Amino acid sequence: MELINTHNHSRLCGHGEGEIGEYAAVAEAAGITTLAFTEHFPLSPAFDPDRYLSVPADLMDEYHAAVAQAAADHPAMEVLCGVELDYLGDLEDRPLAPEMFDRYALVLGSVHFIDGWAFDDPAQRGRWEEPGAPDAIWRRYGELWCQAASDKSQPFTVMSHPDLPKKFAYYPTFGLQPFYEEMAEAVASAGRMIEVNTSGAYYACAEMFPAPGLLRAFCRAGVPATVGTDAHTPANVTRDIERGYKALYEAGYRVVTVPTSTKDRRRITIE
Fold first, then answer.
1. Which helix (H) or strand (E) holds 193?
2. How far is Cα 198 from Cα 82, in angstroms, rounded to an integer?
3. Quick check: helix, strand or coil at residue 13?
4. Contacts of 187 (CB under 8 A, 6+ apart)
5. Which of 49, 50, 62, 218 is the most buried (most CB within 10 A)?
């Protein structure tokens, strides 16, 4: 079956490893037909003072050139240049404009910050241990994620790792199904895609993003879905892509949707 991967990072983001050319070489050798690079769009020093969570603005030209070179070196594979853009809500401090994203084939929408706190950063996870914290964190995350997913003024193509708060295996005391339905309704209202992100299986939650119940909710709502490994090292470019397809199938999907260089979508039948 045709394999695709629409979520990848490199050493340029500060917490990844390896060169973009290395990722492309591994992907082509494995038979991947579409490979999207989605480096973390620059954050301001207020959010990323150590230049660790995103690509520094002064390295973005290097990023664009490296992806273009990878595409030239691997003409049999569609190599896409994209970004992963953090939704910061009312705390947005970057002068973002729609034309800034015209060059990208896809823009992953992510919520990594809750009111300025990087809740999935291992170095900042202590707040999860506070009394009642998981309930409050999950509720606030849901609010922000639904705002991001439904806001048509945002440049997002795909909403990535939708249930990221489970990363450290902290869960709320309340049932998540109503939460899932709200998320599915939000992203469906804007016509965006979601991703099956295979990296979740290697965190404490030991489960891909999104959870099966959430993925089923997306399917019922008619939300198209793609697959990405969220690789931060070349060795993970191909990790569990077929397992991601299987998760889609078990949730009711029969196709994987793939962004293209012309900003269209194509579909692969899951066999």
1. strand 193-197
2. 19
3. helix
4. 149, 150, 159, 162, 193, 194, 218, 221, 223
5. 218
Dihedral Cα 169, 174, 180, 181, nearest 10 deg: 180
Tokens of 251: 């949730």
Q: CB 7: neighbour CB atoms within 10 A? A: 26
Residue keyed to tokens 């910050």:
113
Closest CA to 31 of 265, 267, 241: 241
Q: Which amino acid belongs to residue 88?
A: L
Render pLDDT for 39-67 as a digit per residue (tens, 0 to 9): 999 999 999 999 999 999 999 999 999 99
> pLDDT by residue (tens digit) across 111-126?
999 999 999 999 999 9
Flag whether the pTM goes above 0.90.
yes
User: E strands, 1-124, where?
Assistant: 3-5, 32-40, 78-86, 106-110, 113-114, 117-118
In whole angstroms, how far apart are CA 152 and each of 109, 218, 257? 12, 18, 20
Tokens of 149: 């997913």
Number of neighbours of residue 50 by Cβ within 10 angstroms: 8
Q: In whole angstroms, give the CA distance from residue 64 to residue 37.
A: 10
Residue 1: pLDDT over 90 = no
Strand pairing class (113-114; 117-118):
antiparallel
DSSP 203: S
- Location of structure tokens 């015209």: 102
Q: Assess whether pLDDT exceeds 90 at residue 264.
A: yes
Residue 209: closest CA among 75, 111, 134, 100: 111
Q: What is the mean pLDDT of residues 12-32?
A: 97
Furthest CA-CA distance within the chain = 54
Q: 């079956």: which residue's tokens?
A: 1
